[in-house]
Specification:
This protein is α/β, with parallel strands linked by helices and 148 residues long. It has a 5-stranded mixed beta sheet with strand order 1-2-3-4-5, sandwiched between helices. The chain is globular, with a radius of gyration of 14 Å.
């Protein structure tokens, strides 16, 4: 999988855009990238992971159990929002959230997750500001080709 992880809103919302094939190694690497971001963030830190352009998941339940079962839960974390237009993938995300003891929700679009966060956390910018920030962030991405 190729992905980009960065602050959408500095110290408040971490955004990951993923594309291609997802593997356990990719997920673990991304979690290592996020760990210092969570440490420097201001509670509550929300996380949006956009898997809209993921073409295949090469993750087994054993992989997921190992990754999320060993994950330290940070008291500074707010909501984790998983974006996937596929209903089955949203269901699997909900199961993972439950298993990992995370506050998580699955959405069909980034727009839906931004509305949810803006309505639920009044310390964040408005939905309109978040949507504008996301559009600019997404347009600025320089995507690396996937490694075979």
């Amino acid at each position: 999988m190729a992905y980009v992880t960065a602050w959408l809103v500095p110290q408040r919302i971490i955004m990951t855009y993923s594309y291609g094939v997802t593997t356990a190694a990719d997920v673990q690497e991304n979690m290592h990238i996020m760990a210092p971001m969570v440490e420097e963030g201001i509670p509550f830190i929300h996380y949006i992971t956009d898997g809209t352009d993921v073409t295949r998941n090469d993750l087994s339940l054993k992989d997921l159990k190992g990754i999320f079962g060993s994950m330290e839960k940070s008291p500074t974390m707010g909501w984790t929002c998983s974006i996937n237009p596929n209903g089955m993938q949203r269901f699997l995300s909900a199961v993972i959230f439950q298993f990992a003891g995370m506050r998580g929700r699955s959405f069909a679009s980034v727009d839906d997750s931004l509305k949810f966060l803006a309505e639920g956390d009044e310390t964040l910018p408005s939905y309109e500001e978040l949507a504008e920030t996301y559009a600019a962030w997404r347009q600025s991405l320089v995507l690396e080709p996937e490694m075979s």
